[in-house]
Amino acid sequence: MHADDPYSPDVAKMSAYCTYCPKLCRFSCPTAAAESRETVTPWAMMRLLELTADRSVALTPEVAEAFHHCTGCRRCQTFCRHTNDVPRALWQARERAAAADLIPAAYRPLREAFETQGRPRAAAITWRPAPGVFDADSPVGFWPDCDTLAHHPELIDRVGRLLERVLGQKVRLVAAGPDALPVCCGFPLGATGDRPGLDRHLARRWPDLEGLDTLYTDCPALSAWAEPTSSWPELAHDEPERLRPHHVIELLARRLPELPPEEPLDLSQLMVHPSCMMTRQARLHADVLRVLRAAGHGEPVAMIFDQEEAECCGGQATYRALEAEAAERQAARVAERLHTHPEATRLVSTAATCQCAMSQARPELDICTLLDLVCQAYRL
Asked: How is residue 21 annotated by DSSP?
């Protein structure tokens, strides 16, 4: 690369490895599969990153847009001999492009929604927390996933009751939007490359956590940010360890084995879709299985590609904004695994984002989230 390379040394090394690789990870990339074009393969995007870094290719709007055809799923890393972290590299490329005012126009509604609502969608939400479920003075907080709030807000009350049962105390709903409802952790905004916008958003959010000793979330992205092994560890902004976000599944994996379910699940009829963020970024797949086994009997059905090899559904917010039709095709393709299985009758996704994407793509299939299923097992 060029002497004044704009990327970190690890990214420079990754791009060099990718450049001379014969595209061995191409089959693993959800955007390459959904769009059926070479321009958006991991190899091609990393090659463009290197060519723009050494100024062989100008950083134009068209070139900058190519860096956004990555969902951050990290599946290509699973099949890479060098374990290259392509999402990490491409997020840096997006920030460089954004600094040159080259953020795709398709993101304008999402960015405007963050400015007005603190969330990736501007649509009004009529749901309000049920009285008595949450305690505004509790030292334990619950920060819900944006897709849970947008599509299944009633689940927030149910998870609040589940946390009270498990912890023996009510939790505080982290709600600081202009409508007094939860806001987004900011991951979709960071995925646009707008780092200054993300920093402003987070600066407004941290005061909402004052008085908390513990913070739980069902958002895999928020949980992954706290992991030093994720693609974006620096986005944690070095908040105090006591405010490290823990995924609800981490807590349930420890506590549910001591709390027998009231309506045990028949796991043999369930096919589990491991979310990319939960599995390859937050590293929580083992906890997911512990929770399922505590809530039911039998063994769940594994997808044809499971755990580290699990397929990405393409549901990440910025990719849906950029390539809505391709994202839906990819979600439908992954959901189809349930339709073709001879025994499984229900698909359980470990993330709200994935459940929403696949349910919208294949509404005739029975697809739910893991937390919804657990709440059913405990009659909540």
From this structure: S
What are the structural domain ranges in the chain? 9-102, 120-252, 260-378
Asked if 71 and 312 count as a contact pair (C-beta separation under 8 A), the reply is yes
Extract the tokens encoding 106: 């398709």
How many CB atoms are closer than 10 A to CB 162?
24
Q: Is the pTM of this model over 0.90?
A: yes
Whether the Cβ atoms of residue 193 and residue 94 lie closer than 8 Å to each other? yes
Q: Residue 334's closest CA among 369, 359, 317?
A: 359
Tokens of 142: 């619950």
Q: At what angle do helices 370-377 and 248-255 cross, to 10 degrees?
A: 30
Q: Based on C-alpha coordinates, what's the Rg of the chain?
A: 20
Report how far residue 292's alpha carbon sits from residue 287's, in angstroms, rounded to the nearest whole number. Answer: 9
SS3 59: coil
pLDDT, tens digit (0-9, with 9 covering 90-100), for 174-231: 977 778 899 999 999 999 999 999 989 888 887 888 899 999 999 999 888 878 788 8
Q: State the SS3 of 183-223.
A: CCCCHHHHHCCCHHHHHHHHHHHHHHHCCCCEEEECCHHHH
Cross-strand bridge partners of residue 217: 143, 247
Q: Which two tokens stand for residue 23?
A: 């595209």
CA 30 centroid distance within chain: 15
Report the C-alpha gap between 15 and 202 in whole angstroms: 30
In the block, which residue shows the tokens 């005012």?
101
Highest CATH level, class, for 260-378: alpha beta
Of 243, 138, 150, which Cα lies nearest the Cα of 188? 150
Please say if the pLDDT value at position 1 is more than 60. Answer: no
CA gap 64, 80 in Å, rounded? 24
Instruction: Report the range of poorest mean pLDDT among 211-215, 243-247, 289-293, 296-300.
Output: 243-247
Instruction: Determine the distance from the C-alpha atom of residue 300 to the mean position of all C-alpha atoms in its chain, rounded to a whole number.
Output: 22
Which helix (H) or strand (E) covers residue 347, if one does? strand 346-349
